[in-house]
Specification:
Blueprint: H1 5-16, H2 25-41, H3 49-61, H4 65-77, H5 85-97, H6 101-106, H7 137-143, H8 147-163, H9 167-177, H10 198-203, H11 212-229, H12 234-243, H13 245-251, H14 258-270
């Protein structure tokens, strides 16, 4: 039997992203849901319905009712995937069984659920090797002084490959922003490990900035966006993380704020690279990038 392209893509993508599931199931499900929403609506990343559907399905497999409903809605309306009423009914049914009110109402308009478990909900025939990032032993020893900090490092190690970000850079940002305190809150209401302000949290679909997994996912998503916006320039990207990309554009380099300049220097002591790989498909480059007069402040 020949698989439909979208279903085959879902199977491949689900299996490829399986290491994320090593996190706590509920936290992993909420993180997958947030990332799926980003790809479905093109928020901070290029819109990719097939990848969104694959991520929704991973979260659905972990029992997240919202992910089950969202995936059902995509199939019921053919939004970025091939319309499939049977699959829609299956996912509406799964969500409805968990008390999802909207899903229960939608079941009145769909046919019977398919009897076959969707491919993306099935376990892969063989376990995939866990993809984790290497972290410099000296940096890990310097930061990982408590059990809680070691847990943060493990989250970074697991998530960094999925955002294609050097984990050393993420740890440098976490250490500088919050000193590894997941409950940190600044006078400007920046929250959590990577100090996300509410607008940034909303932009990257972080529902609870004090949840370490969600916070790190959101911070990594923003860093990935900034690296693409400034074409891999670490100094400009981290200056943008602290002061906002608009300020970097306005001053055509590191803004003349004492806090931002000290912030960039602190990051550079922990992460000595000035260039980082980036995905040009994430966003268009800064409109003033070619005329920036200073990349080092």
């Amino acid at each position: 039997m020949t698989m439909k392209p979208v279903r085959l893509a879902l199977l491949i993508a689900c299996c490829a992203s399986a290491p994320v599931l090593a996190l706590e199931p509920e936290a992993a499900a909420r993180g997958l849901l947030a990332e799926a929403q980003s790809f479905e609506h093109g928020e901070g990343v290029r819109r990719d319905p097939a990848r969104a559907a694959a991520l929704y399905c991973q979260a659905a497999k972990l029992g997240d009712a919202d992910a089950q409903f969202n995936l059902a809605w995509m199939y019921a309306n053919g939004r970025g995937v091939e319309r499939d009423d049977a699959l829609a009914a299956t996912f509406f049914d799964l969500a409805a069984r968990q008390g999802h009110e909207h899903a229960q109402r939608m079941l009145r308009f769909t046919g019977a659920p398919t009897r076959e478990l969707p491919l993306c909900m099935q376990d892969p025939p063989e376990p995939e090797p866990v993809m984790v990032a290497d972290i410099d032993p000296d940096l890990e020893a310097a930061f990982g002084t408590t059990a809680d900090r070691k847990r943060v490092i493990e989250i970074v190690r697991e998530l960094a490959p999925h955002f294609d970000i050097d984990p050393q850079l993420v740890l440098a940002v976490i250490g500088t922003e919050s000193n590894f305190n997941p409950k940190a809150r600044s006078p400007k209401n920046a929250q959590g490990l990577m100090q996300l302000i509410p607008e940034t949290a909303q932009r990257f679909n972080v529902r609870d900035s004090f949840d370490p997994v969600q916070n790190i996912r959101g911070g990594m998503a923003y860093l990935r966006w900034l690296l693409a916006y400034f074409e891999g320039d670490v100094v400009l990207a981290t200056a943008g993380y602290n002061a906002g990309e608009g300020a970097v554009d306005k001053y055509k380099g590191v803004p003349p704020y004492r806090e931002t300049r000290e912030y960039v220097k602190r990051i550079q002591t922990l992460f000595r690279k000035t260039e980082h790989r980036y995905d040009q498909s994430v966003t268009t480059p800064s409109p003033v990038l070619r005329t920036l007069v200073s990349r080092r402040g």
